[in-house]
């Protein structure tokens, strides 16, 4: 009896002590991250930026781990890891271009197919039931998806002095559909998750037709676009893998929980690899135009949120649906756009804007979701 009582009474104390130790460890990691950043910046100002790479990488790695200790910040860990990988690709590009004679860019298309397969395993016929239940929201979401971002991409590309292929990449990311990340952000922002999933699914299935047509119309003034070839490339990367995923989902529906836990992790890893390969391939261009490209891509992303939200408001959708449309419009499938750029043979130029857009939208989307999460739906 006394033994049992001792265990029961001691357990909360030991649990609290463990939590305190964990918090101290996370705090120490964040302090170490700040020290690494300070040292890296100091070396850069002293003219040794070429040797500050390991310190910058260490900063991002320590920061990513440290953020895991805070519930409100741990969602940023994945994006920070991406920054660590991108920094490594910028400092040591040769390691991410070729491995024992194998060109790593060849992995991009299979990785996109794997990501789309994962999307298929998480989909079912029920995901499209929203078309019948809320046709107005679905129609507005899909139309906004394939009008606002392509036109904004074309406008921004026309106003900048980028090379034609870099400018075409800005248009390409605008012509892509939204991705699975938008569903997660929508959930965190207290949006209409059913509407988000339906718009994402429909937009993705329409991509083999809409993306090439829009790219040919808007991007054709910058580079030559083979619309039919692009349709086939997207069909291979999207429709076939999603179809296989749907079949697997139906065949293994008793094990769907296992699949749903594994595939998001595989997808995140695949997107990280794609971004790193593109960064390494386009390193020289990024070092030249990086800050301006980040600014333009940021404007593109933020305009998607803003215009998507207010167009939805214009059509008198609910606040919950307006948030959903804003996220669906502002967040694009950067991985698919990168795969298209690779199939075009222009990964180091056309692929740059999608590579920048992906990590950036995760940051802005997380911030937006946190703000909306605390704001009541009226």
What does this structure look like?
It is globular, with a radius of gyration of 22 Å. The chain is 76% helix and 1% strand. The protein has 378 residues and is mostly helical. It folds into two domains: 1-100; 104-374, Na+/H+ antiporter like fold, CATH 1.20.1530.
Would you summarize the structure shown here?
This protein is mainly α and 378 residues long.
Question: What descriptors fit this protein?
Answer:
single chain, 378 residues, mainly alpha, Na+/H+ antiporter like fold, 2 domains, two-stranded antiparallel sheet, 76% helix, globular
The helix count comes to 16
Estimated share of beta-strand residues: under 5%
- Shape estimate: globular
**Total domain count:** 2
Number of strands: 2
């Amino acid at each position: 009896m006394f033994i049992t009582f001792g265990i029961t009474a001691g357990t909360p104390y030991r649990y609290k002590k463990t939590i305190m130790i964990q918090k101290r460890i996370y705090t120490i990691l964040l302090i170490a991250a700040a020290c690494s950043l300070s040292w890296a910046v100091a070396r850069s100002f002293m003219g040794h930026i070429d040797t500050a790479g390991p310190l910058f990488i260490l900063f991002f790695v320590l920061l990513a781990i440290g953020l895991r200790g805070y519930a409100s910040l741990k969602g940023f860990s994945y994006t920070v890891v991406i920054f660590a990988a991108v920094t490594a690709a910028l400092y040591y590009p040769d390691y991410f271009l070729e491995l024992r004679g194998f060109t790593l860019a060849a992995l991009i298309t299979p990785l996109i197919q794997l990501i789309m397969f994962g999307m298929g395993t998480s989909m079912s016929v029920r995901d499209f039931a929203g078309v019948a239940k809320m046709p107005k929201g679905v129609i507005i979401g899909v139309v906004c998806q394939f009008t606002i971002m392509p036109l904004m991409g074309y406008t921004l590309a026309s106003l900048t002095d980028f090379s034609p292929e870099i400018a075409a990449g800005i248009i390409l990311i605008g012509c892509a559909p939204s991705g699975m990340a938008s569903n997660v952000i929508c959930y965190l922002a207290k949006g209409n998750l059913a509407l988000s999933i339906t718009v994402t699914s429909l937009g993705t299935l329409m991509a083999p037709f809409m993306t090439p047509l829009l790219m040919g119309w808007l991007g054709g003034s910058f580079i030559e676009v083979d619309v039919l070839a692009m349709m086939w490339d997207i069909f291979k990367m999207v429709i076939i893998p999603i179809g296989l995923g749907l079949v697997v989902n139906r065949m293994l529906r008793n094990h769907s929980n296992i699949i749903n836990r594994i595939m998001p992790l595989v997808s995140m890893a695949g997107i990280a690899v794609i971004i790193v390969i593109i960064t390494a391939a386009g390193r020289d261009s990024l070092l030249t135009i990086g800050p301006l490209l980040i600014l333009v891509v940021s404007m593109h992303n933020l305009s998607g949120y803003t215009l998507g939200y207010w167009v939805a408001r214009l059509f008198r959708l609910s606040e919950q649906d307006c948030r959903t449309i804003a996220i669906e419009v502002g967040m694009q499938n950067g991985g698919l756009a990168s795969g298209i750029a690779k199939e075009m043979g222009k990964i180091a130029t056309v692929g740059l804007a999608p590579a920048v857009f992906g990590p950036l939208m995760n940051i802005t989307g997380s911030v937006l979701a946190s703000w909306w999460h605390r704001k009541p739906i009226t």
